[in-house]
Specification:
Blueprint lengths: L3 E5 L9 E5 L6 H6 L4 H20 L16 E5 L4 H17 L4 E6 L1 H8 L7 E4 L3 H7 L6 E4 L6 H8 L4 E5 L3 H4 L4 E3 L7 H8 L21 H10 L4 E5 L11 H13 L3 E5 L5 H10 L5 E3 L6 H9 L3 E5 L2 H9 L3 E5 L4 H4 L6 E5 L8 E2 L2 E2 L8 H4 L3 H12 L1
Parallel strand pairs: 3-4, 3-6, 4-5, 6-7, 7-8, 9-10, 9-12, 10-11, 12-13, 13-14
Antiparallel strand pairs: 1-2, 15-16
Helix pairs in contact: 3-4, 3-13, 9-12, 10-11, 10-16, 12-13
Amino acid sequence: MSGLCFTLFAKNNRLRQIDFCMENIKIGAKEILASSGSPRMKLLKLFDFLVGSLLATLAKEREEKKFPPAGTVKRILVIRPGGIGDAIFLLPFLRTLRQENRELRVDILCEKRNAAAFESQKGICDNIYRYDKLDSFKALFGNRYDVVIDSEQWHYLSALVAYFLRPAYAIGFATRELRTKLFNQKIAYDIDAYEIVNFSRLFGSLLTNKDAIQNIDSCFIVSDDCRSWAGQKVQEKSVCLFLGASIPERRLTTEQSLTIARFIIENGISVILLGGGDVKEEARALEKNISGPRLINLVGQTSLEQSAALIKQSALFIGPDSGLMHLACAVGTPVVAIFGPGNLKKWGPKGSMHSVVSANASCAPCTVFGYTLPTCQGVYSCTKDVNMADTLAAIKKYTQ
């Protein structure tokens, strides 16, 4: 993509000028309201755009300074708003932090929709705070941090939290001029790089072994209780088919899901349907067209960790670009990922145990920094034109 340009200005030894250009994309109030997503999320993004930018303008720029000496950093906060996918990408870095420094106290600031990704992982942090729970958010400001790392890629509010907590040192991505001024260490961001690469830069000053983190495979540990529950729930060989995705344009069509489910069942393998309550009707449509016990509908019935346990014991996960797709990689299960409007370079699963299917539409990706702004006027050929023969061939490779 090229066209929308964000320019960061450097002084002395600061960042050199960086331009990110994305064709035909402008993220202003009009684009926020026109983008995909729930009304609540749009209002939050609009608030960030209007109020966040004003507060960032008024804030005094934090000076760049040398990172604290090794051994002096005792307590850090990692900020992670957003969905499950971004949270999953943080897990290998959080684990490495604890492995390299057992005495380091690590807190996390997140929100309801991604908190379970952290809460389910024992030992990766000391405290979890929520910015969408007032008492929890207020309690955060009673703490003193040596370092605050803002892992958000674009919006202002998380950077402002890092600023007003007044840590000795604040680290964040340099993606907008006003946002960049709120950090001591301003990390260059590559719009098309695999996100592990960007997060490696973000944690670079704290880790000695960051280069060993190449992907998110097997970074999510499923508890014994959840594994036992999954084993009792589904006892035969199975494949998980995910019907959801927080961005509706990424979801498979009913016809695509039917084709996939029938193919798997005809090969004597059970299909576990996963997804949130927003795709219950889609699951019912599959049940109406496929009879028999090999179609197991668990849509809207599982927690994040229960879903992880079901995926862990399955031979394969199939689904669109989504948080649950990243979770499947994180539990070590092979994945067939179907990409439509999302950025394949940034979020596609890596490694030989995974496969990606895409229509390679000329207008894709149309998502940047959490904003999906389709230019196809509702055609969505990027998802609807995905070749089912290629998809079934990829599935066959893992289920034979």
